[in-house]
UniProtKB/TrEMBL annotation:
Keyword annotations from UniProtKB, A to Z: Hydrolase
PANTHER family assigned: 60 KDA LYSOPHOSPHOLIPASE, L-ASPARAGINASE
Protein name per UniProt: asparaginase
GO terms (BP aspect): amino acid metabolic process
Organism from which the protein derives: Cytobacillus oceanisediminis
Keyword presence, Hydrolase: yes
EC number: 3.5.1.1
């Protein structure tokens, strides 16, 4: 019988109706009690870590989750984390950076409807997550509505539907049909690896979504408060220089030692700053290219990289190096 650890952090899945809306209340064992059959198939031990709506997730809590897995790694065949959906994609990416060289599955799941409700997606999602946590595959994954998504590639696309999560610029790792798992690509045999934990972060990071008319002065404020800035530009990755000159501001930021990553507001296909003048004018030697990473991965990756170095060249190198399948071009 496979031995798994269930770590709980809160979210809708653990919520009850309170006087003021849904609040995470259920403890790990209470969640499992809704799925009595699971204990006959798997040996599951529980570890409650926190009980929060994931809207309240903080970067420091990612480290708590990663450490808990690291400390228990040798004693289990796989790990399941229950988590709210709102910031699940950020957490799955962050844990993918903090915990590397995994040769066992770390599976994050949650639900759109509490497990305590009559009609709920929670039971299916936990059953699927537990099933996938028994696989011989290493890495961090989100399992939701029968889809297995690489931890660095997920976004929450829908606020209410069961198929809330999508995999961006990367195929689903697998699909789950009851007890059957269908992989999108043949599984590579995993070599025994030495798990690595690195939870250091610099949280002085900002995310800016460009819009026509955005004030350059906004970046003066960020210069005083940030070590790293992610700019969600438009389309293939251009930065405006007419009228309100944002390009000039980004150059000022990098000159003062701040790391600037350019990505795109388009969800699919990533940036390609080679195509247009508005992209080519961006200084490719200093500005960090995000290629086809998604924002939910770029933000925690930048915090994680800045936790190691503030040297602009080194930050650029690390950010542009694929980790846990986060970049494929
Ligand atoms: N479906 C959910 O889990 C949403 C909830 N607000 C959370 O992220 O914790």
């Amino acid at each position: 019988m496979k031995k798994l650890m269930l770590l709980t952090t809160g979210g809708t899945i653990a919520s009850l109706e309170g006087d003021n809306g849904l609040v995470p209340e259920l403890e790990a064992d209470e969640i499992l009690s809704y799925l009595p059959g699971l204990n006959t198939l798997y040996h599951i031990e529980t570890k409650p870590l926190m009980n929060i709506d994931s809207t309240n997730m903080q970067p420091e809590y990612w480290g708590i989750i990663a450490k808990a897995i690291y400390e228990n790694y040798d004693n289990y065949d796989g790990f399941v984390i229950t988590h709210g959906t709102d910031t699940m994609a950020y957490s799955s990416a962050a844990i993918s950076y903090m915990l590397q060289s995994l040769d066992k599955p770390v599976v994050i799941t949650g639900s759109q409807i509490p497990i305590s409700f009559q009609k709920t997606d929670a039971k299916k999602n936990i059953s699927d997550a537990v099933r996938f946590a028994c696989e011989k595959i290493g890495g961090v994954f989100i399992v939701f509505d029968g889809r297995v998504i690489q931890g660095t590639r997920a976004i929450k696309l829908r606020t209410k539907s069961y198929d809330s999560f999508e995999s961006i610029n990367y195929p689903y790792v697998a699909s789950i049909y009851g007890n059957k798992i269908e992989y999108s690509n043949p599984l590579q045999t995993e070599k025994k690896k030495e798990i690595k934990l690195d939870t250091s972060l610099c949280t002085d990071v900002s995310l800016v979504k460009l819009f026509p008319g955005i004030k350059p002065e906004y970046f003066d404020f960020l210069k005083e408060h940030c070590q790293g800035i992610v700019v969600e530009s438009y389309g293939s990755g251009g930065i405006p220089f007419h009228g309100r000159n944002i390009l000039e501001k980004l150059n000022e930021l990098t000159e003062s030692g701040i790391s600037v990553v350019v990505t795109t507001q388009c969800l699919e296909e990533g940036e390609d700053m080679e195509i247009y003048e508005v992209g080519r004018k961006v200084n490719q030697n200093t500005i960090i290219r995000s290629r086809n990473m998604n924002t939910e991965a770029i933000v925690p990756k930048l915090m994680w990289v800045l936790g190691k170095t503030h040297d602009l060249k080194r930050v650029k190198e690390l950010m542009e190096t694929p980790i846990a399948n986060d970049i494929t071009i």
